[in-house]
Amino acid sequence: MTSGVYPGPLLLLLSLLPASHQTCPSMCLCVSDIVSCSASGLSKLPKSLPSYSVTLDLSHNHLSWLGPGSFTRIPRLENLRMTHNQLSSLSQGAFNNASGLRYLDLSSNKLHVVEQHYFQGLWRLEELLLYNNKITQIEAGTLIGLSSLKKAYFSLNQITHFPFFSIQDHSHPFLAMLDLSSNRMSRLPWEDVKALPGLVQRGLYLHNNSLICDCSMYSVFWHWDLRGYDSLKDFTDEHTCTVYGNPRASIRFLRHSRLFQNCTVEKAVSLPVTVLLSNVLVSEGERVRLDCQTSLSSTDLSFTWISPSKGYITQATINDTLISLFPNGTLEIQAAKVNDSGLYVCTALDIKQALNATREVNVTVLLPAVEPFNTGYTTLLGCVVTMVCILIYLYMTPCRCSCCKQPKPQAIPISTYDPNTLTSVFSPSVRDQHRIQTNKHVAFMEAMISEEGPEWTPES
Ligand SMILES: *[C@@H]1O[C@H](CO)[C@@H](O)[C@H](O)[C@H]1NC(C)=O
Ligand SMILES: *[C@@H]1O[C@H](CO)[C@@H](O)[C@H](O)[C@H]1NC(C)=O
Ligand SMILES: *[C@@H]1O[C@H](CO)[C@@H](O)[C@H](O)[C@H]1NC(C)=O
Ligand SMILES: *[C@@H]1O[C@H](CO)[C@@H](O)[C@H](O)[C@H]1NC(C)=O
Ligand SMILES: *[C@@H]1O[C@H](CO)[C@@H](O)[C@H](O)[C@H]1NC(C)=O
Ligand SMILES: *[C@@H]1O[C@H](CO)[C@@H](O)[C@H](O)[C@H]1NC(C)=O
Ligand SMILES: *[C@@H]1O[C@H](CO)[C@@H](O)[C@H](O)[C@H]1NC(C)=O
Ligand SMILES: *[C@@H]1O[C@H](CO)[C@@H](O)[C@H](O)[C@H]1NC(C)=O
Prior knowledge:
Blueprint: H1 7-16, E1 29-31, E2 34-36, E3 55-57, E4 65-66, E5 79-81, E6 89-90, E7 103-105, E8 113-114, E9 127-129, E10 137-138, E11 151-153, E12 177-179, H2 190-194, H3 198-202, E13 204-205, E14 211-212, H4 215-226, H5 230-234, E15 240-242, E16 250-252, H6 265-268, E17 277-283, E18 288-290, E19 302-307, E20 311-313, E21 323-325, E22 331-333, E23 342-350, E24 355-366, H7 375-395, H8 412-415, H9 419-426, H10 430-438, H11 440-443, H12 446-451
Parallel strand pairs: 2-3, 3-5, 4-6, 5-7, 7-9, 8-10, 9-11, 11-12, 12-13, 14-15, 17-24
Antiparallel strand pairs: 1-2, 15-16, 18-22, 19-20, 19-23, 21-22, 23-24
Bound molecules: 2-acetamido-2-deoxy-beta-D-glucopyranose (8 copies).
One 2-acetamido-2-deoxy-beta-D-glucopyranose binds next to loops.
């Protein structure tokens, strides 16, 4: 009775087991939370995909369309890979109920226009891969709402315009990679580009576009180059522009800056902001004065410095006697340290006219030069002195030379010619210690005994 198994509980147990929609489609591989249906010849989505999928791989198939709510039944979906399909458009609401998506790879498809509604609601999306499609246009509102976006790749398309204005300081706080390289942008709205958050500018890739050479373009890149952005360093030769829009007159403008010598890069960055870079080289410990002369001529300016080691410096924040900020904007550091090196940026603010201007100074603090009197000389001098001492010691005992007190160990083998010290080195004993201490001749061997102590065990 007590051990009997009733069919009731068993049926209940069976009904709790995963229902049929949880089974893995025959052409897919299901491993815990990963469902891989790549290269399965699919031309449409499998009817039932396991609802527990977190990663779904549909790459290398023939999918050409995504219907509304395609992933509604997969609430935990985070990674969706659909690279190398035939997608040419996505229907309204294709990603409805897929707001958990963090990684979406639609690269190497046939998308033409990225429509405003495509990624609606994907506020958790961190990476969006759309490279190698046929995209000619990205609608203005496409990126709005993608507030977790970190990386977006639009390379290898035919994009001529990009809605830079839709990316602002707080709209995409984590965006650090915006790849628009290898597209067809010839003229960019440089004012919008300059207004992008610093993090986005640092991660903006624009090489291998058919940019038209002009000063407003050059000044932006000049500025990025100055800041050492990787996008420019890694693709120096791919940054080309064309003269008069003639594709055959293509210039590697980061290499041939001479052609832009008549561009007033300082002014072009953002009027009336004037950015002039100067380099200051000082030795550690020296006093440094950094001037903040800008294009603003008003006598009523207030100055702010940003320093690499101390952050914001204004008249009000200085509580350090080693730093002073003069009324004319000059910043003085009493004794520069090596880690005071870096880019100092001064902002002059004319409150009345609501104008500001900045100036950058690249400070390099060098360690003081090494003194020529180095250890080599010291050792040599030590040897000579020791030899002299030994000669005096051998011929003029008792020693009257004060430098005998600290001889160098390397002189010791010579001193072993003295039979007295020889015996005391190789056969000392505790009994002899008192005599050794009082014997001036042996005093200098003690150094060696104590140095080589571990190898040598005294008797008794
Ligand atoms: C999908 O989202 C809509 C609202 O956008 C909601 O009404 C619906 O219940 C969701 N469906 C599922 C299966 O979660
Ligand atoms: C530059 O872009 C073209 C297409 O616009 C592409 O075919 C080529 O591979 C790209 N070159 C590099 C070096 O990225
Ligand atoms: C500042 O100067 C140092 C040494 O001259 C150089 O390595 C560094 O790249 C410079 N930084 C900028 C932003 O120009
Ligand atoms: C820059 O201006 C000077 C004088 O105005 C002119 O001789 C020179 O050709 C110009 N350089 C370029 C690259 O346009
Ligand atoms: C600068 O270097 C000193 C040691 O030389 C160190 O104690 C200090 O923390 C460093 N400051 C910064 C801001 O790195
Ligand atoms: C200077 O002020 C800052 C905050 O304003 C404080 O963190 C720092 O400890 C102060 N330094 C000294 C030396 O008083
Ligand atoms: C600013 O004032 C300081 C101290 O009065 C002076 O040493 C410095 O030369 C001045 N700088 C300029 C650019 O006039
Ligand atoms: C400088 O001026 C620009 C507009 O010209 C403004 O956006 C910026 O906030 C100003 N910066 C400061 C520090 O006032």
